[in-house]
Structures are given as structure tokens and as C-alpha cells.
Design a protein that fits this description.
This protein is of the alpha+beta class. The chain has 8 helices and 5 strands; from the N terminus they run H-H-E-E-E-E-E-H-H-H-H-H-H. The protein folds into 2 domains: 109 residues, no CATH class; 118 residues, no CATH class. Strand 3 and strand 4 form a beta hairpin. About 3% of the residues have low confidence.
Length: 237
């Protein structure tokens, strides 16, 4: 493989910047020469020196972009999420097409690094409010009196959540849908199941309307302030 010209390297750098990767992350990308171990194709004719791999170890993931070639005959193998996941290949492509595929690789890395871990956020937000479910001897039904009291409090909470977090029509729609579901569950679930549902639905609601884990305390303080007496009613305390 011929060495890359500085102008080519600069084009690759600019391509990655344009793909959305933060420059601080790009600086963590390493160049590995004689990178034949990252090849994932079988044609021996393609191997004329081991090739080069761009390698990014970041936030628990390893990303590879192996390439080889010269002039206007380039091959590449991209591993956006590690060497066995999401592999993409191309043979004898032009330099312009090569840069396009490098950009796609960069966009996938950028998307991965900038995407929140909703499962982790869910756990962090749920940790803001919990109940001692062992207080329930069984999953007894919610009485008509209890259901009326809970629905009254839920309506107040729905109004306050819309007031505080209904910053867009989409958020308001999500809030109303979540609370409609909670109202319906009161009619068909036992006390224990409904409390599980309450925490799960409010946690997913918080994520959907943009409540970050760091600001979850404010959200759950609102929940406790409005629903506290109803929760105690269900707990029998």
C-alpha cells in the first residue's frame, strides 16, 4: 500500500469532523499500519502490505475502519460497533466513494456516542422513587373508593406535569397518553401491580419528555407531593 498523502489525511480528518464526531473524540482515533488482522475478506490480491486501520476505543466500545489501496482503487471494511458487529465492505471504490463511506462510519460512531442509554436513565430515574412492595400480602383489588381518590390525585398530577413539562405539543400528547393508560390500569389491576405500573409509566414518561437523570429529583418530588396520600392509602399506612 502506498503511503497516504498529507492532503488525503486532511480530507479524512475533515470528513470525520463533518460526520458529527467531536474533535476531542477524533483525537483519540489511532492509526494502525500493517493492520491485516482487521481484514475481513478472502481475496489475497487485495493484500499488498497489510493496510491501515483507524481504531477508536471509546466509552467501552471499539470501532474499526480498515482500508487499503492507492490512486482510485480503494477497499474498506468498517466495523462501527466492533470487529464482529455491523461490518460493511467495499472493493475498488473511488476516493470520493471511500470518503463517503468513512463519513458513514463517523456518523454511526457519532450517533452511538451521542445517544443516551435509556435503560440506564430509566434505572437512575426510577431510583428516585420506590416503595416497599413487601408490605403487600397479596395483590388485592383497588376498591371503588380508592380508585376515585387516586384518579382525583392523578388528574392534579397530570395538570402539573403539563404545566411544568408540556413545552411542546408532542410533550403534551405524550403526557396525556401516559396518564390515560394509568387511569385505565386502575380499573383492571391490583394494588401491587398498579404501583409497579405507576413507577414504570412515570419513569418512561420522564425520559420521553426530556427529564434527565440529574434533574429527576424535581420530577419525583412533584409526584410525591401530589400522590403521597394516595400511595399511603394503597399501602394501608
Amino acid at each position: 500500500m502506498n503511503s497516504l498523502l498529507k492532503t488525503q489525511k486532511n480530507e479524512m480528518y475533515s470528513t470525520l469532523v463533518s460526520s458529527g464526531i467531536d474533535e476531542a473524540v477524533i483525537r483519540k482515533i489511532k492509526w494502525l499500519t500493517n493492520a491485516s488482522k482487521y481484514r475481513a475478506y478472502n481475496s489475497a490480491n487485495d493484500d499488498d502490505g497489510g493496510g491501515i486501520a483507524l481504531i477508536l476505543d471509546y466509552d467501552g466500545n471499539t470501532f474499526f475502519f480498515y482500508f487499503n489501496g492507492s490512486a482510485d482503487r480503494w477497499i474498506y471494511v468498517a466495523f462501527p460497533m466492533g470487529i464482529t458487529n455491523g461490518k460493511e465492505k467495499g472493493y475498488n471504490v473511488s476516493w470520493v466513494e471511500f470518503l463517503k463511506q468513512l463519513s458513514n462510519w463517523g456518523k454511526k460512531i457519532s450517533a452511538e456516542l451521542n445517544t443516551p442509554d435509556l435503560w440506564l436513565d430509566m434505572q437512575n430515574i426510577k431510583s428516585g422513587y420506590s416503595f416497599d412492595y413487601e408490605e403487600f400480602k397479596d395483590n388485592e383489588p383497588i376498591t371503588a373508593e380508592e380508585a376515585h381518590a387516586i384518579k382525583s390525585k392523578l388528574k392534579i398530577l397530570e395538570h402539573k406535569v403539563i404545566e411544568d413539562y408540556g413545552k411542546s405539543d408532542e410533550n403534551i400528547k405524550i403526557i396525556k397518553e401516559k396518564f390515560t393508560y394509568l387511569y385505565a390500569c386502575i380499573e383492571r389491576q391490583g394494588k401491587k401491580d398498579w404501583l409497579y405500573t405507576l413507577i414504570g409509566v412515570l419513569s418512561s414518561l420522564a425520559i420521553a419528555i426530556g427529564v434527565s437523570a440529574s434533574n429527576a429529583d424535581k420530577f419525583w418530588l412533584l409526584v410525591k407531593a401530589v400522590l403521597g396520600s394516595s400511595i399511603k392509602l394503597l399501602l394501608g399506612s
